[in-house]
Specification:
heterotrimer; A alpha/beta; B alpha/beta; C alpha/beta; B: alpha/beta; OB fold (Dihydrolipoamide Acetyltransferase, E2P); 2 domains; 8-stranded mixed beta sheet; C: alpha/beta; Rossmann fold; 7-stranded mixed beta sheet; 5-stranded mixed beta sheet; 18% strand; binds thiamine diphosphate; binds magnesium ion
């Protein structure tokens, strides 16, 4: 696999993956203190997918995300501080505290929302792709979805629709081995690549721990979509480090599964090894990024905790067209 | 006699935590004899006239009519007219300052006796023990469709002086729902089974309605186990029984159907409260209860009549026996109390329905104590 | 009889019915613990552990994990119901009904009538509803009025562990499709529940308080709040009847009307969004059939007409509370006094 990235792209890729990791590790520890309300589904271990794909996108492109959306948001350019505040339910949050972890969105940045409904994103991505096609913006859309989501009717219907309308759309099927406690090896019949073929759509499977592999596959799919070549599918295979949501004891997994993965297949470690071997970036530069990101996330948490909660009297009944 | 006596919110049954004073039967300044009705107390299950445990002049109605108070709270003060008002005031202030209401669902409830189950050849029998002492205990046997809660007013009164055991017959309450043939003999065998399981050689039996026939059966087949026998509106002494009650009870599955059925049991139908109806329905909803009750009804009350007579058996009993009957009973008519053997004492209670042990608990308790004194 | 949680009561109902009737099956996401995973068996028991233990007893042929394909498996349940099984479907959050609604309201709900009475559809869809869990807009709705609206569906909303077990057993034995609403905030609530199986008839309201001044009708978790409000009001000398209809379809309107006739005042507490919910429905029916008995305008206590917000400060303000119910009751009392004056 080639490492055809500019120095800027390499730095951006590493920094974004590190931001996601630091963000998620921090949500993990903060969640355990009980201060973060509700559900949190963490993306740690899966960073290479969001980053490798979004590397090729800009603000005219849209993505539809999932309940495990923090990584997609950061990769698409959402402000981590505003995201953290949102997760804490603060007024300064990206959605004013109304959405929370599962509904972080920044439509201006082409981030059409994390999603509480499994399979809810793919049809929306079809719509964003239709807009791009109709208005000839040159934009594309990406539908992120899990292995679990790949079994929803909405996903199947969207694949067919994208094909018959020849939409500039990429389906990124993030297969982390599980949907909640159910293994994808059991729940997904056939293979995603064969499913794509069934719709006469190109499909590839890539190693999701390897950001270069993801980036390469995504480059090809995005170029195809931008140039009018229609939809395609990328089947990203990897693993999540934490439970389905915070609080999940993961007893359905093998004991040392995650530990082994962290040691041998971690996307950040693999990146460091590869750029080190190829002498593209030196470790000191990467360490400096790590430190910078750590400070950023420290500040994000501190600012989120210090921020005000929304005011029920003022904020509960705003963003609606009628009150009663 | 300068004594000041408090009257507090009574605890009817084991689960009561609070009650409301519905209305006063005595005005301030009137004299009250012990056992005279002082006020009506309403709980979520039933409304009951409360008989004053003490005598004297009613000096103060502390509870307003309609006021809900926890068990143990001060409701009235009795004292001789000579006691000055200021002393009454001081007494009330002092009582209120020291009163700690029992916490609902708190420790008090944990301490309260709980029903238990005993294994018998007739299946598990649920029973509730209260009181203690070494003599033969009192065993309380309810009627058709009833359960051990039918003794909620009476059992605590009897338990002041001795061990008491109220049980659920097979097919009833929390006892096993298999009834076998469901006839009186099989029910009596279950009562004997419980006595065996608890190693009780003999007991004072109190049977109500169908439970009366059951205790009669036991007394005639195992006389050595029976010290005295109190029959409250018993079955087995005539052929009539209120078929509307039996049928209605079997068929009712809804509050609106059940309430009028239960109201037939009491001389004053307004006594029945929401929770009593709900408790009966809770029981009736259990799997197996319909079948059990139908079997018992068919065996004991075929074609809406009483199937068996124990008049002869009654004549042959050697232990002290009494019969207590509400004059307004429409379930089993009080006329069945006529023509009984000389030795059987009969007490007819005016203004009382089928549930004398609830409607006139204190009086029934005194009668039972009296009979036991003769044993 | 022993103390059981709402979760245990529901689990026990399914256990006893699966034991009693071999045609009862259960399906849903992770209800058998998660198929194909290498770790512990029966690891999950559904997302909040309500079905735990069932697969161990009844096996994978009767306790079926599903892929995330609600439309297909809810529809499959409906299809299996008209062909001889008695499926219980766990549809995790009622919000996901959006994915599979056709199979419920166009298919299952209509078979009996549309096929001229020749079909039975003994289907139960168990589903979580309700706000307060910080689960945000797509996991917090109280959508029972939507189902109540549709002829052919029955809708049950238990308000306690006792109610949950009895109503669920009734639902499983019922030959019509039943949508069974479990408030996710109540799973750890405890109460006395008989060990034996029992049924609670549908369309039979329960009175959890009996009073003479104001009737409060409430559903599901709101019943507990209404009880709290009634107890607090009793100390002020206002006595309330609290009606728990138990099922919104069929609805025991008779009992509601009787209580309104007795008290002359009505407050309806509904966790569902305020337009076209149970509160508006009951208020309308009371206005039609008991208008002459009303001493004061009917008051409704419901959330504002917004999606359920995520932030705790907003969500707490969103939900009805005992204090809001008390306030509404007092308003009906004061309204009456003004009229008399
Ligand atoms: C329509 C719908 N069904 C079920 C759920 C509950 N749920 C949330 S995430 C999830 C698993 C999703 O698995 P997958 O798509 O593989 O994503 P992952 O969690 O592995 O990232 C499920 C079942 C939901 N949110 N929406
Ligand atoms: Mg997955």
């Amino acid at each position: 696999m080639s490492l055809q990235m500019s120095r800027e792209e390499l730095l951006h890729t590493y920094k974004t993956m590190r931001t996601i990791r630091e963000f998620e590790e921090r949500v993990h520890t903060e969640f355990a203190t009980g201060e973060i309300p509700g559900f949190a589904h963490l993306y740690a271990g899966e960073e290479a997918s969001a980053v490798g794909v979004c590397l090729h996108l800009d603000e005219k492109d849209s993505i539809a995300s999932t309940h495990r959306g923090h990584g997609h948001c950061i990769a698409k350019g959402c402000d981590p501080k505003a995201m953290m505040a949102e997760i804490y339910g603060r007024k300064t949050g990206l959605c004013g505290g109304k959405g929370g972890s599962m509904h972080i969105a920044d439509v201006a940045k082409g981030m059409l929302g994390a999603n509480g409904i499994v399979g809810g994103g793919a049809p929306l991505a079809c719509g964003a792709a239709l807009t791009a096609k109709t208005l000839k913006t040159g934009g594309v859309a990406v539908a992120f979805g899990g292995d679990g989501a790949s079994n929803q009717g909405t996903t199947a219907e969207s694949m067919n629709l994208a094909k018959v309308w020849n939409l500039p759309l990429i389906f990124v099927l993030e297969d982390n081995g599980y949907a909640e406690a159910t293994a994808s090896a059991w729940s997904v019949s056939g293979t995603p690549v064969k499913r794509a073929a069934g719709y006469d759509m190109p499909g590839v499977q890539v190693d999701g721990h390897d950001v270069f592999a993801v980036a390469e596959a995504a480059r090809e799919a995005v170029e195809r979509a931008r140039s009018g070549g229609g939809p395609s599918l990328i089947h990203v295979v990897f693993s999540r480090y934490y439970g389905h949501f915070e609080g999940d004891a993961m007893t359905y997994r093998e004991k040392d599964e995650v530990e082994n993965l962290r040691r041998t297949r971690d996307c950040l470690n693999l990146f460091r090894e590869r750029v080190g071997e190829a002498k593209l970036l030196d470790a000191g530069e990467l360490d400096a990024i790590d430190a910078e990101i750590k400070t950023l996330i420290d500040e994000a948490v501190a600012e989120a905790k210090a921020a005000d909660m929304p005011d029920p009297l003022r904020d509960l009944e705003t963003d609606v067209y009628v009150r009663y | 006699m300068a004594e000041i006596q408090p009257v507090v919110m009574p605890k009817f049954g084991l689960s009561m935590t609070e009650g409301a004073v519905l209305d006063w039967h005595k005005a301030e300044g009137e004299t009250v004899a012990p056992g005279e009705e002082l006020m009506d107390v309403e709980t979520t299950k039933i409304t009951n006239a409360y008989e004053s445990p003490v005598g004297g002049t009613l000096r103060r109605q502390v509870a307003r009519e309609g006021e809900t108070l926890p068990v143990g709270a001060l409701v009235a003060v009795l004292a001789d007219p000579s006691v000055p008002e200021s002393e009454i005031d001081a007494f009330i202030t002092d009582f209120q300052a020291n009163f700690v209401p029992p916490e609902a669902g708190g420790e008090g409830e944990e301490d309260a006796p709980r029903a238990q189950k005993a294994e018998t050849p007739q299946g598990a029998i649920n029973y509730l023990e209260a009181g203690g002492g070494s003599g033969p205990p009192v065993v309380l046997v309810h009627g058709f469709g009833g359960d051990l809660n039918n003794w909620m007013f009476l059992q605590p009164l009897l338990a002041e002086n001795r061990r008491t055991i109220a049980l659920d017959l097979p097919g009833h309450g929390a006892s096993a729902k298999q009834t076998g043939s469901g006839d009186v003999a099989s029910l009596a065998a279950a009562v004997a089974g419980l006595l065996d399981a608890l190693s009780i050689e003999s007991a004072h039996l109190v049977g109500h309605s169908l439970g009366g026939a059951v205790t009669l059966h036991l007394a005639s087949t195992a006389p050595q186990r029976v010290e005295t026998l109190t029959l409250i509106a018993p079955a087995g002494l005539g052929s009539e029984v209120d078929a509307d009650y039996i049928d209605g009870f079997l068929k009712a599955s809804r509050r609106k159907e059940m309430k009028p059925v239960l109201q037939r049991l009491f001389a004053d139908p307004s006594l029945i409260r929401r929770e009593m109806v709900e408790e009966v329905l809770k029981f009736k909803r259990l799997d197996g209860v319909d079948e059990a009750l139908t079997a018992i009804a068919e065996a004991c009350f075929p074609q809406g009549r009483q199937g068996l007579s124990y008049r002869e058996a009654l004549a042959g009993l050697s232990c002290p026996v009494q019969v207590i009957w509400g004059e307004a009973d429409i379930i089993v008519p009080v006329s069945h109390a006529e023509g009984l053997p000389e030795a059987v004492t009969v007490t007819r209670l005016p203004g009382t329905g089928h549930m004398a042990q609830m409607e006139k608990a204190s009086e029934v308790a005194r009668l039972i104590e009296g009979l036991m004194g003769r044993a | 009889m022993s103390k059981k949680s709402f979760r245990q009561a529901i689990n026990e109902a399914m256990h006893q019915e699966m034991e009693r009737d071999p045609n009862v099956i259960l399906m849903g996401e992770d209800v058998a613990g998660g198929m194909g995973a290498p770790g512990e068996e029966d690891a999950w028991g559904g997302v909040l552990g309500v079905t735990k233990g069932l697969v161990g007893t009844y096996g994978r042929e009767r306790v079926l994990d599903t892929p995330i394909t609600e439309s297909a498996f809810v529809g499959a349940a409906a299809g299996s119901a008209i062909t001889g099984l008695r499926p219980i479907v766990e549809l995790m959050f009622v919000d996901f009904m959006g994915v599979c609604f056709d199979q419920i309201f166009n298919q299952a709900a209509k078979f009996r009538y549309m096929f001229g009475g020749k079909a039975k559809t003994p289907l139960v869809v168990r589903t979580m509803y309700g706000a307060g869990f910080r689960a945000a807009s797509q996991h917090s709705q109280s959508l029972y009025p939507v189902f109540t609206h549709i002829p052919g569906l029955k809708v049950a909303i238990p308000s306690s562990p006792y109610e949950a077990k009895g109503l669920l057993i009734s639902a499983i034995r019922d030959d019509d499709p039943v949508i069974f609403f479990e408030n996710k905030m109540m799973y750890d609530d405890e109460g006395e529940v008989p060990d034996e199986a029992y049924t609670i008839p549908f369309g039979e309201a329960n009175l959890t308080r009996e009073g003479k001044d104001v009737t409060i009708v409430a559903f599901g978790r709101m019943v507990n709040l209404a009880n709290q409000a009634a107890d607090a009001l009793a100390k002020e000398g206002i006595s309330c009847t609290v009606v728990d209809p138990r099922t919104t379809s069929p609805l025991d309107l008779d009992t509601i009307l009787e209580c309104v006739e007795d008290t002359g005042r009505l407050v309806v507490v509904d966790e569902a969004s305020p337009r076209c919910n149970m509160a508006t429905d009951i208020a309308a029916q009371v206005a039609q059939d008991a208008f002459a008995h009303l001493k004061a305008p009917v008051r409704m206590v419901a959330p504002p007409h917004t999606p359920v917000p995520f932030s705790p400060s907003l969500e707490d303000a969103y939900l009805p509370t005992a204090a809001k119910i008390q306030e509404a009751v007092r308003m009906t009392m004061n309204a009456a006094q003004r009229e008399v004056a």
